[in-house]
Specification:
It is a single chain. By secondary structure, the protein is mainly α. The chain contains 4 helices and no strands.
Length: 93
Amino acid sequence: MRIDAYNQIAQIYGVQKSARTARKQSAGGQSDQLSISQIGRDYQVAKAAVAEASDIREDKIARIKTMMDNGTYSVDPGAFASKLLEKYSAGII
């Protein structure tokens, strides 16, 4: 295989490609435009607000920590078991 021949072909292709691109740009004179609907803008705002929100609910954590420190926090074993079975049967666990 001759590398020189490959380089010559690559140079020819590069020249043709740039000439073709210049011709396409000057031919139409139009540019692409993007417009986003009001619903799309609202969706973007809502998505940004959700992304900024914390996954941790500080108010609930503070209340439970206080209850644990006071010794008043208790878990109903029956309620815990039923919730656990619900999650298991739904395939979450």
